[in-house]
Design goal:
0% of the residues lie in helices and 55% in strands. The chain folds into 2 domains: 57 residues, no CATH class; 74 residues, Jelly Rolls (Sandwich), CATH 2.60.120. It contains no helices and 14 strands. It is mainly β. A hairpin with a 5-residue loop joins strand 2 and strand 3.
Length: 141
């Protein structure tokens, strides 16, 4: 089995990905997460200077993943409905509400296992966050 990959540009001008069999995709920090097979020929060209990117990769047939990019300005609840759920704020701070509030800073990752109680997240301001869900292939929750 090959590798499924999702790429998100976090900083910099962006990148053009030329994945075999698809039209070239210009990805910037404003783009939605871009999913593609990592085991097909791919060429990449930076638009102007270096970038910082987030890559999520899972082995096809063994694991699956989804990546959501959210801009949040109001509190939200995250449900741990995947085998593993990761919450990654890009640029702002998020408070985990509760009896003992905790803070997540930029690029701090919150890791939730399946069945963890809902987490209430309170963003400090308009914050971009990524919600990554990873499941074993064939799990049905």
């Amino acid at each position: 089995g090959g590798i499924d990959r999702t790429l998100c540009v976090l900083a910099g001008q962006g990148i053009v990905l030329d994945v075999a069999g698809r039209a070239p995709a210009e990805l910037t920090a404003a783009s939605a997460p871009f999913s593609f097979a990592a085991d097909v020929p791919t060429a990449a060209a930076l638009i102007s200077g270096p970038i910082t990117d987030l890559n999520v990769m899972t082995r096809r047939g063994r694991m699956t993943h989804t990546v959501e990019r959210l801009t949040v300005a109001a509190p939200l609840e995250i449900e741990a409905r995947a085998d593993t759920t990761l919450v990654l704020p890009l640029d702002g701070e998020i408070v985990l509400a509760g009896d003992a509030p905790e803070r997540l800073g930029p690029l701090d990752a919150l890791v939730l296992d399946l069945g963890t109680p809902r987490q209430r997240l309170e963003p400090a301001a308009g914050t971009i966050l990524f919600v990554i869900r990873i499941d074993r292939a064939g799990s049905n929750h």
